Design the sequence.
């Protein structure tokens, strides 16, 4: 689902009300019924229609993705359930190679004739476009897996939880915020189920059932007298889990300036704290610009990792395939080839991963039928690898794809998308308290907010939800109007310490945007709290 | 799917309504075809074609609403979906903010949003348009990455109170980035039209080529406040943030840059320079838009900012009822009046300044002041004594469109552009702005 569709469907974007063209884009749906279970033998027959039709027209490779994509939102505004929305989308995307060139076509009509026609259209497009192709597609070899399946290991399917449980939860969450002084509260439960069947002429028939959850809220506190307002967003993470993520567990709570959460989330507790903190933000001291040591919580750091490590290590960006939109990368092949490129300090070890349980990137197979895995990206501060897919793997000398191919739906073509990219915890025991105790002049940042980075991923600016001033090893109060700006390589070289595994948590997003037409992908980023020395902080307060 | 005619839409929507037993029922259908070519490294990368449609059925009992969509249109499938939406409506909690569906509406005649020639584009025609663009890249020893997409669409809605609306549209969108062989220069151009006849991929690629070859060996300048000329493709990404935030409810609730101390709002106040006039007009021939919106309200010409004063804010039907005013739907398009100067004349009249081709990665920093951050990209040049002197390295800005439009220095001629961030088209002029705030340098090319 695209981010702007989500904003529209949930009413979470203020600007949505002004962009009436968006009304034709989303279709608020509420089937309330489980998808019609289609027998895997029928799916195989449908996919074979596509494979055979494309082959008959001269395709040398074909894959077919038959998908049913379900989303459910429960949306509140203050004390009302504003929307209950189910979206359901069903169809088939067919990708072929003909005359050495890619072609793609998709159809929501799934009778044999329509499938065959879509396959033929894909071949016709490939042949037409081969006129303007400079060299033929080269696919990394991939063995066929035969008939296999994979399912997100969930404890409680969110789509099977009664609607009343969900509406009751959100209304009580909002009530908790109001009881603690909030003026306005928006909250959303967002559930995703991708049921997708992949078949290719390599001999794979892969059936997957993928689940994700994301509870979010925003609390606003208004000071009518001064005309000022502040917000505090939830500190939850989107997860590759079932409804169990929403059932609080004390062993998953970390007590800090506010409670932080590992693998279970307490939405009530967080909303109550958010209301109090939004009021505190109204009275917080405005930051003095300058250099600070930053102590970054995983609820914040995930986004910095995503933008400054995840994107520049995407091989398609490095090669120029995204030059027109998402951009290229400063991590060019010559830097990687030296085997010595100093991306960060020795404390920086970053792993790419498509296996981690509970993460958004975890699947059994990617969207071009490649089994998933884990590999190093940054090792002891040095750039050692990228992320790639079948038609680019040979460029960095790989004999097989790394399994990073994804499409947001049956109707979009699959391409390279980021796996989970995570900072590994420090190997020596180190708590957040111990880390803060060594900071003379610093800011402890919790939660993500504003984020922006250039098209080659050098220069970035980030903000957070909560800022605490550190003086001589102690937190002395709250700050406001904070944003930090840095150069990626300098920033990661300033990483002085990473807390140990006991502090490790996942953050992430459903809405990593890339490609033309733009597609969204869901991805997690793990880390423990980390310390960065001497980062430039600006004051963002202005007058209008 | 094929584009359904008005009569075909009426027939299928009437059929859906005939199954309804709810207090009120509204049905909409939309669909169409789209196809694209994406290219990079001077070669085609991915491309595709898609036909799809969707019907949404909304059934209400009192203040309870249930909505179902489907993309199968047999009698049985539609009847079953209507029934399901009614079951869901009975399960849903009352929404005190629920508004009944509208009665019959009168819409202005549809402007020319649909151009048959755009709908008739063939794969060979698309490939030829891209081939022209690739030729420019190769002739200039540049590396091209681009995207060309065309679509034709229909949408219709009908409800149990007698409302019916129908529209068709076409679109063609093109963007191109050219980079020099040493990766030290980059240039960009983008355009979006309803009519393929206006889409000259050759001419637009030449503009990008000129910027790419002229932007190598960029010099660093100190971040700070500078006079800038924002080309329309750069200006729109900030203007649309202002336009998209002209919402009455958030202003009334005290959580908008339009809120004032004591619970008042800036509706009726002078917000920006008096030369700023921003309005919506679906009948504008250069930016035609549907004369009805998603909830069936008519879309009409409406002024948002006149001589710098906030004249209208959008009111949802619920908020309008609560406040005792007429509902104001969000605008169908964005039009900002310009002046008479060409871009070249604006440059000529600039003593010292920066020409900005494109702004990128725009994100909100502070909603209180509508502060945004982002960076320049793909063609940033220093102007001195009315001439482009040299390319400069890219810069990060932190600026509010409100502050920007208060620092307006000059406006050029209005032209159609498209936002690289939202994909929305608009008619806006190039703008010369004083004291635009850059906060750091970027090494990105």
Sequence:
């Amino acid at each position: 689902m695209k981010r702007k569709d989500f904003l529209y469907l949930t009413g979470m974007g203020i600007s949505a009300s002004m962009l009436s063209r968006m009304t034709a884009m989303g279709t608020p749906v509420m089937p309330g019924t489980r998808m019609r279970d289609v027998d895997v033998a029928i799916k195989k027959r449908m996919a074979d229609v596509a494979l055979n039709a494309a082959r008959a027209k001269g395709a040398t490779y074909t894959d077919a993705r038959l998908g049913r994509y379900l989303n459910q939102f429960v949306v509140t505004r203050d004390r009302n359930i504003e929307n209950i929305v189910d979206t359901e989308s069903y169809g088939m995307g067919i990708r072929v190679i003909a005359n050495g060139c890619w072609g793609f076509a998709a159809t929501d009509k799934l009778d044999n004739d329509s499938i065959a026609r879509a396959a033929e259209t894909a071949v016709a497009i490939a042949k037409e476009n081969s006129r303007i192709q400079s060299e033929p597609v080269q696919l990394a070899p991939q063995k066929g897996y035969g008939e296999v399946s994979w399912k997100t290991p969930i404890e409680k399917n969110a789509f099977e939880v009664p609607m009343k449980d969900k509406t009751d939860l959100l209304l009580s969450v909002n009530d908790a915020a109001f009881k603690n002084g909030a003026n306005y509260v928006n909250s959303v439960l967002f559930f995703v189920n991708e049921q997708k069947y992949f078949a290719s002429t390599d001999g794979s028939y892969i059936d997957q059932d993928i689940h994700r959850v994301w509870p979010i809220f925003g609390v606003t506190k208004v000071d009518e007298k001064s005309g000022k307002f502040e917000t505090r967003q939830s500190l939850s993470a989107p997860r590759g889990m079932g409804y169990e993520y929403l059932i609080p567990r004390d062993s998953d709570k970390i007590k800090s300036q506010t409670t932080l959460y590992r693998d279970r989330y307490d939405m009530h507790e967080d909303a109550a704290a958010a209301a109090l903190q939004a009021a505190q933000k109204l009275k917080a001291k405005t930051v003095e610009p300058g250099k600070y040591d930053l102590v970054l919580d995983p609820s914040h750091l995930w986004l910095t990792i995503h933008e400054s490590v995840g994107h520049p290590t995407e091989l398609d960006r490095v090669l120029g395939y995204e030059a027109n939109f998402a951009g290229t990368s400063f991590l060019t092949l010559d830097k990687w080839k030296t085997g010595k490129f100093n991306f960060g300090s020795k404390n920086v070890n970053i792993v790419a991963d498509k296996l981690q349980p509970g993460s958004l990137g975890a699947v059994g197979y990617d969207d071009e039928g490649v089994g998933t895995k884990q590999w190093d990206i940054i090792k002891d501060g040095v750039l050692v690898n990228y992320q790639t897919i079948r038609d680019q793997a040979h460029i960095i000398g790989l004999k097989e794809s790394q399994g990073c191919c994804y499409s947001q739906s049956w109707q979009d073509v699959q391409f390279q998308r980021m796996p989970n990219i995570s900072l590994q915890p420090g190997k020596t025991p180190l708590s957040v308290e111990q880390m803060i105790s060594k900071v003379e002049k610093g800011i402890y940042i919790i939660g993500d907010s504003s984020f922006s980075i250039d098209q080659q991923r050098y220069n970035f600016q980030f903000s957070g939800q909560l800022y605490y001033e550190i003086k001589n090893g102690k937190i002395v109060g709250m700050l406001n109007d904070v944003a930090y700006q840095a150069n990626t390589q300098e920033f990661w070289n300033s990483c002085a310490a990473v807390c140990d595994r006991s502090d490790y948590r996942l953050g992430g997003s459903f809405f990593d945007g890339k490609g033309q037409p733009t597609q969204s992908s869901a991805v997690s980023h793990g880390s423990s709290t980390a310390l960065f020395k001497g980062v430039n902080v600006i004051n963002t307060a202005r007058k209008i | 799917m094929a584009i359904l005619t008005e009569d075909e839409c009426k027939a299928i929507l009437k059929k859906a309504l005939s199954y309804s037993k709810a207090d009120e029922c509204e049905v909409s259908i939309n669909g169409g075809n789209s196809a694209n070519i994406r290219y990079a490294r001077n070669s085609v990368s991915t491309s595709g074609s898609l036909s799809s449609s969707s019907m949404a059925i909304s059934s209400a009992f009192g203040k309870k609403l249930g909505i179902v969509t489907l993309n199968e249109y047999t009698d049985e499938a539609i009847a079953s979906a209507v029934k399901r939406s009614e079951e869901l409506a009975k399960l849903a909690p009352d929404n005190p903010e629920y508004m009944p569906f509208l009665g019959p509406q009168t819409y202005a005649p549809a402007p020319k949003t649909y151009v048959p020639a755009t709908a008739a584009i063939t794969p060979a025609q698309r490939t030829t348009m891209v081939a022209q663009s690739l030729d420019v890249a190769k002739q200039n020893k540049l590396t091209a990455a681009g995207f060309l997409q065309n679509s034709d669409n229909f949408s219709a809605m009908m409800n149990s109170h007698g409302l019916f609306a129908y529209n068709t549209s076409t679109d063609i969108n093109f963007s191109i980035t050219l980079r020099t062989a040493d990766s030290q220069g980059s240039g960009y151009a983008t355009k979006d039209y309803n009519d393929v006849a206006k889409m000259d991929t050759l001419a637009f690629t030449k503009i990008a080529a000129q910027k790419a070859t002229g932007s190598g060996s960029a010099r660093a300048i100190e971040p700070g406040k500078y006079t800038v000329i924002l080309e329309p493709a750069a200006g729109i990404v900030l203007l649309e943030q202002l336009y998209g935030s002209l919402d009455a409810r958030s202003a009334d609730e005290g959580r908008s840059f339009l809120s004032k101390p004591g619970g008042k709002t800036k509706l009726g106040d002078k917000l920006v320079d008096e030369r700023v006039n921003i309005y919506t007009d679906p009948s504008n021939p250069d930016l035609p838009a549907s004369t009805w919106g998603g909830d069936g309200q008519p879309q009409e010409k409406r002024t948002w900012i006149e001589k710098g004063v906030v004249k209208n804010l959008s009111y949802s039907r619920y908020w309008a009822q609560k406040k005792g005013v007429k509902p104001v739907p969000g605008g169908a398009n964005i039009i900002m009046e310009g002046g008479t100067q060409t871009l070249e004349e604006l440059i000529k009249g600039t003593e010292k300044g920066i020409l900005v081709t494109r702004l990128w990665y725009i994100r909100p920093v502070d909603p209180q002041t509508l502060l945004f951050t982002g960076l320049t990209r793909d063609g940033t040049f220093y102007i001195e004594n009315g001439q482009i002197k040299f390319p400069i390295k890219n810069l990060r800005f932190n600026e509010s469109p409100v502050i920007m439009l208060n620092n307006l220095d000059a406006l050029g001629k209005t032209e159609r552009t498209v936002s690289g961030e939202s994909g929305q088209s608009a008619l806006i002029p190039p703008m010369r702005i004083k004291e635009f705030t850059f906060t750091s340098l970027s090494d990105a090319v």
About this structure: Confidence is low (pLDDT under 50) at residues 11-35 of chain A. Chain A touches chain B through 104 residues (CB under 8 Å). Chain A is about 20% helix and 35% strand.
